[in-house]
Design brief:
Layout: H1 2-19, H2 31-43, E1 48-52, E2 57-62, E3 72-79, E4 87-95, E5 115-117, E6 138-139
The structure holds 2-acetamido-2-deoxy-beta-D-glucopyranose (2 copies).
Length: 167
């Protein structure tokens, strides 16, 4: 059974490799989350945003068209078994983009999100109260101490948390 599946997978992979460009595996993000990502990027203060929902890849983000040299981004989508159009964001990282916005409450619209890291940006404001309801397992610390806040720290709070970072 498994061998059969693997065989089919190989055939499909080979076919997509050789007869179709580009050769990304399909992992189509659901439209609600495509929209949520765009709002999140706007809230973070990103001027540019281009996302490929079919491959789950950020093609353009940030305040400049060419990203800062040491910037880093990663986004992971995971699909429900047997349905490559039922994929959800599980991880989102945008580091060293000089983003000037605030922490986006809209993260709650990514219900499978577990890991988020917006380190080394210029985000300002409070930790959104709404995040407390999420299943976040780790959240980067933009002060660059390498410390992570865990979900039990994501309690509603009113004092501002400044996410300014050293130059
Ligand atoms: C796959 O997921 C999409 C998006 O959630 C849904 O519209 C579609 O009906 C699903 N297909 C199957 C075969 O379950
Ligand atoms: C950051 O937010 C605080 C509190 O809302 C505000 O007083 C301050 O001016 C903001 N700083 C920047 C650089 O936006």
């Amino acid at each position: 059974m498994l061998a059969g599946k693997l065989f089919v997978f190989l055939i499909v992979s080979l076919t997509s490799c050789c007869f179709r460009l580009p050769t990304f595996p399909e992992a189509k993000l659901v439209q609600e989350e495509v929209d949520a990502l765009e709002e999140i990027a706007r809230t973070l203060g990103s001027k540019y945003w281009k996302f490929n929902a079919d491959t789950c890849e950020i093609e353009m983000v940030g305040v400049t068209q060419v990203p800062p040299k040491n910037s880093a981004q990663r986004i992971d989508c995971e699909c429900n078994k047997g349905n490559n159009s039922d994929c959800h964001v599980t991880r989102m990282e945008l580091k060293r983009y000089n983003l000037p916005g605030v922490l986006p409450t809209q993260l709650v619209n990514l219900p499978r999100l577990q890991v988020v890291d917006f380190a080394y940006n210029y985000l300002n404001g409070t930790l959104p109260r709404e995040w407390a309801s999420m299943q976040l397992t780790s959240m980067g610390d933009s002060k660059g101490t390498g410390k992570y806040y865990h979900s039990h720290h994501l309690v509603p709070r009113s004092e501002p948390i400044f996410w300014h970072n050293p130059p």
